[in-house]
Amino acid sequence: MATCNGQWVALLAWGAAALKCGPRDAWIGWTPALKFRRLHLIANHVRFLILPDGDSPNLASQILARNLQRLSADWEHYYGHPILLVETFVDATRLRGTCYRPAGWQVLGTTRGFGKHDPGYVAHGQPKRVLVCPLGPQAREGLTAAFLPPADFTRKEILPRLDLNCLP
Fold first, then answer.
1. Total structural domains within the chain
2. pTM score, two decimals?
3. Is 38 strand, coil or helix?
4. Which domain holds residue 120?
């Protein structure tokens, strides 16, 4: 959650990366075997809600940018490994996704319009725009490296809530 003056202004949710995403996988340059070993280093931005009292210019982009500054450290604290890349899927028939670009996200293409259902995939006919944001200058290299650097298993102190009181 993001707060401003003690009030909640936005809610964000992150989850596991999509198992199959052609535009993302092509951009990274993955082989199927390497994707299986590195997929855990990607997080999917599954929900983003600006609450009614949180309506101010550029708020969504500022929240996204600040959240990305801390996401990998938070993820490492809870799950024991960092995040190198984030992804999201935007339904262009309902949303423009304009808040992502100022926060450093780039559009890679469009999905084929399938969704995971039980053991397989079902065509739902609603292709989504694929956006990604590397969380460092070497993100793609890390996702395609033959070996990952050794894990740092020392617990880092959890960062405080995302406080927007210091926004310009």
1. 1
2. 0.83
3. helix
4. 2-146
Per the CB < 8 A criterion, the answer to whether 133 and 86 are in contact is yes
Query: Is the pLDDT at 131 greater than 60, yes or no?
Result: yes
Domain assignment present for residue 29? The answer is: yes
Residue 83 to residue 64: CA distance in whole angstroms: 15
| Domain presence at residue 153 | no
How far apart CA 2 and CA 60 sit, in angstroms, is 10
Residue 50 is part of a domain; what is its CATH number? 3.40.630.30
- Over residues 62-94, the pLDDT tens digits come to 999 999 999 999 999 899 899 999 999 998 888
Nearest to 107 by CA among 132, 75, 137, 81: 132
d(CA 129, CA 92): 6
Find where tokens 């951009």 sit.
27
Q: Is residue 113 part of a domain?
A: yes
Residue 17 to residue 45: CA distance in whole angstroms? 9
